Amino acid sequence: MSDVETTVITGAGIAGVHAAESLRKEGYQGRIVLMDRDQQIPYDRPPLSKDWMTGEKDDERILLRDPSIYEQLDIDLNLGVEVTGIDPVHKTIDTKDGSSYEWDKLMLTTGSKLRTLSINGDDLKGIFYLRRMADAIAMKQHMNNVEDAVIIGAGFIGAELASSLKHLGINVTIVERSSYPMENIFGRQISEYFLDLHRRHGVDVITDDSIGQFNGETSVEEAVTVEGRRIPCQAVMIGVGVTPNTEVSHPQLQIERGYVVNEYGETSVPDIYAAGDCTSWPYNGMPIHIEHWDHAVSHAKTVAQNMIHPK
Q1: For strand 75-79 and strand 31-36, is the pairing parallel, antiparallel, or unpaired?
Q2: Which residue range or ranges hold the FAD/NAD(P)-binding domain (predicted)?
């Protein structure tokens, strides 16, 4: 182990970037290694379904920080690195390319991962999930030759994509299994408002139904609902929610709706912390899990402070 204390942060999304930045602002003098499996300089994901998709923002304008900031703050940014294992005894992590990184403290900011569908025809070309820049690039390129698109799920991603694709002149149909999308978050009145807003802007919203299969030769040509509706389409976007990404794991790490952390962001393994969407943490004596941009930022900053100012 090096004489210089090293903090490794796995996941260079909104939580990871703010955690690394906060460590420096709090006076941390050790080495900071910020790694991510993505190849791109850390970027903000929400615009991928909105301003970036419509062309109102380019790649540079959705970066979380100018690339020079990482150098100025002496943050060792390692991209295209996929963690495969943790050794809490020797304090190392292993990566897919065979490398091993030593750490004194480790922070897991792995975010969330997409829920996926498994139905007939889901391997046809033109069916997309949107999580990373690579997904957005492939989707945007495909849209050049699309007249009709189906969006499965009327949550945040689905609603944003519907608006963006209508802006691009594409006919959009949303298929939502519930009667009132996001009612559990906003309530019935707000849900009805959003439904009406989409319909007034020309989006066909089908509720109380779900997709049963996709048809086509090599590319998707039709989406068929469980109730028998047949919807012609050349593209399908699936947005049926996310779950905490706990793929970076170890038997000693307690996981229940995310990495279980205490009020300081400490996991069940000494010197391993976690923050953001990948965590479950105590609130009024009960474990809660929150998936939100603001929470990821504030939680990462707080946990970073706790790492260098122990309780």
Answers
A1: parallel
A2: 7-300
pLDDT digits (tens, 9 = 90+) for 5-43: 999 999 999 999 999 999 999 999 999 999 999 999 999
Q: Do domains 6-113+243-308 and 116-238 have the same CATH topology?
A: yes
Joined tokens for residue 155: 């949550």
Q: How far is CA 164 from the centre of its chain?
A: 19
Contact by Cβ (8 Å): 276, 299: yes
Q: Are the beta carbons of 151 and 162 closer than 8 angstroms?
A: yes
As a CATH number, domain 116-238 is 3.50.50.60
For position 88, what pLDDT does the model report? 96
CATH number of 6-113+243-308: 3.50.50.60
Domain boundaries, the chain: 6-113+243-308, 116-238
Q: What's the CA gap between 248 and 109, in Å, rounded?
A: 10
Among candidate residues 83, 120, 119, the one with its CA nearest the CA of residue 103: 83
Residue in the structure block whose two tokens are 């391993």: 272
Locate tokens 């943790």: which residue? Answer: 86
* HSE (side-chain half, CA atoms, 13 Å) at 66: 4
Sequence-ordered list of residues with C-beta below 8 angstroms from that of 202, at least 6 positions apart, any chain:
166, 171, 172
d(CA 78, CA 305): 22
Its pTM stands at 0.91
